[in-house]
Amino acid sequence: MGDRARTGVSAAVTAAVVLAVLAVPFAVPLDEQAVDLAAKLQPPSWAHPFGTDEVGRDLLLRSIYGLRVSLFVGVAAALAATVIGTAVGAAAGALGGWADRVLMRIVDLFSSVPHLLLGIFVVTMFRPGVWPVVASVVVTHWLSTARIVRAEVLSLRSRPYVDAAVSGGASRWRVTVRHLLPAVLPQAGLAAVLMIPHAIWHESALSFLGLGLPTHQASLGNMVQSARGSLLAGDWWPTLFPGLFIIVPTLAVAGLAGAWRERLNPRRRSELTL
């Protein structure tokens, strides 16, 4: 499959996912507390295309609701982390000197702690819910954006048009806002898109460990965790379909981000193949 075809498939899957998580909750409301023990662990059928879970809930509907939560966490955390990382990286690169050293030491300090361990520390300080998970992803994922933006700003500071602006009497703040930040926004936007799959995996891992969303709430991590007993009993569908809802959308978003990265730097691919 060629690059254009892969990009087309990624775009189609992403569009279908976004349409499903936006339209289905309005068309088919979900009762989080609903239980139908007479229909528990039914295999996939016309009535239940993904089957039912251990308490008789429709897995297709719950998977869509769980993906909705995961996408919200991914997008919200990616935007917040990108804003923080861009601000820190731009400040470090533009100010230089002691400010650069202090900000980068802070980045190194956060980077020295494993992401999952730091995320667990954050979510355990609050009650289970969406916003603590978003906060844990933001705290652990702004670091790479800060490094990328700082490197770009340091590279841009040596450009002739920046030197001309400084020679013309422009302040450091004006140079940063008018010249440096607009130039790094495409890289920051790419970092945000690449962060969405990581945020989804992060939320799923925390929920799987019982530290993310409440157990009754539809979450892909919660669904995989609660299906472990069913898998040992030979019932494969409660684990397979929520797992696919984690893997397929994240691969689609990553494919779109890869195409965007090649457009930003078309020589990257040729350099990597040398």
From TrEMBL:
Cellular location(s) = Cell membrane
Which spans are transmembrane here? 69-95, 102-123, 129-149, 180-201, 240-260
Record's bilayer topology term: Multi-pass membrane protein
Q: Which Gene3D superfamilies match?
A: MetI-like (1.10.3720.10)
Domain of life of the source: Bacteria
Pfam families associated with the record: BPD_transp_1
Sequence ranges assigned to domain ABC transmembrane type-1 in this UniProt record: 67-257
Q: Which UniProt keywords apply?
A: Cell membrane, Membrane, Transmembrane, Transmembrane helix, Transport
The family database entries (PANTHER family) matched by this protein are listed as: ABC TRANSPORTER, OLIGOPEPTIDE TRANSPORT SYSTEM PERMEASE PROTEIN APPC
* Family, as annotated: Belongs to the binding-protein-dependent transport system permease family.
What name appears for this protein in its UniProt entry? Answer: ABC transporter permease
Q: Which organism is it from?
A: Streptomyces roseoverticillatus
